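Below sits the subject:
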Amino acid sequence: MPRLLPLGAVLAGIAQQFPGHHLDADGPFERGGRWIYRVKWLTPDGRVLIIFADAQSGQILSVNGGR
């Protein structure tokens, strides 16, 4: 297994880009040769986002939801 960031570091990176806080998180797990975290994120206005982040770099790969 490659060297992965702890979940707390990934959550801190997400918080810099999206106001709010995490509700739940899964991972890290491998998908398509990449280790990722899946984070359920609640924004201050009540929207729930599903954020996939690279577990090695912390880079946000995709954001779904928000309706």
